[in-house]
Specification:
By secondary structure, the protein is an alpha/beta fold. Helix content is about 30%, strand content about 20%. The protein has a single domain, classed as Alpha-Beta Barrel (TIM Barrel). The chain is built from 7 helices and 8 strands. Helix 2 packs parallel to helix 3. The longest helix has 13 residues. The site of D-xylitol-5-phosphate has 22 residues, from strand 2, strand 8 and helix 7.
Length: about 210
């Protein structure tokens, strides 16, 4: 049912059983979805720790045609960009809540590495923080968090839909992706407001 919308789906293996990651990635491949979302957490920017570049590298080596969409929830993303690019990341998403110095430095690293970039905003963050960066040609999408980042399986925060609408109006050509609490119903709401890509954790791996 979820696949009936003509949009991009990005399964997040954060929601999979960590002892069974190979089967989780296999499930993505078997479903015909060509990309996977990796949630990387440092215990500082978010109150949880997940996995590092080695997981990305292993997924990439085993499934080289799977596009790796890497969501860095790190206080110092620039420390890890080169490792994730080397591990096979196709796109790296940074949080716009970080200082301008860190975001700009990270975007420069991504530009030098010719890696696509995304910018993410948390539910309580105003869309204005994105504006200084959106002229950069390597930014190919905005990730609008629809839960407080850190954990899979949380409830969708519907108030963020207003931000999706606002961004769609101001940047009609920018791909808008929603992340957190996505299922058939919430994806339909997001799509109606202008989002065309959706991260799926629990609804894909536990649905
Ligand atoms: C939240 C992560 C999400 C999350 C999505 O911190 O960025 O990608 O794993 O999981 P669900 O879809 O279960 O909310
Ligand atoms: Zn994510």
């Amino acid at each position: 049912m979820l696949k009936s919308l003509a949009v991009e789906w990005l399964p997040s293996i954060l929601a999979a059983n960590p002892l069974d990651l190979r089967n989780a990635v296999e499930k993505v491949v078997q479903s015909g979805i060509k990309q996977i979302h990796l949630d990387i957490m440092d215990g500082h920017f978010v109150p949880n720790i997940s996995f590092g570049p080695q997981i990305a590298e292993n997924v990439h080596k085993t499934y080289p045609s799977l596009f790796l969409d890497v969501h860095l929830m790190l206080a110092r993303p620039d420390d890890f960009i080169d490792q994730f690019v080397e591990a096979g990341a196709g796109r790296i998403i940074l949080h716009a809540e970080l200082s301008k110095r860190i975001v700009s430095r990270s975007l420069k690293r991504l530009r030098d590495a010719a890696c696509l970039a995304g910018l993410a905003i948390n539910p309580e963050t105003n869309v204005d923080v994105l504006f200084p960066y959106l002229e950069d040609e390597i930014i190919d999408r905005i990730l609008i968090m629809s839960v407080h980042p850190g954990f899979s399986g949380q409830k969708f925060i519907a108030s963020v839909l207003a931000k999706v609408e606002m961004l769609k109006m101001r940047y009609p050509d920018m791909m808008l992706c929603m992340d957190g609490g996505i299922n058939a119903e919430t994806a339909t709401q997001g799509f109606t407001c202008g989002a065309e890509a959706f991260v799926m954790g629990a609804s894909f791996f536990q649905g």
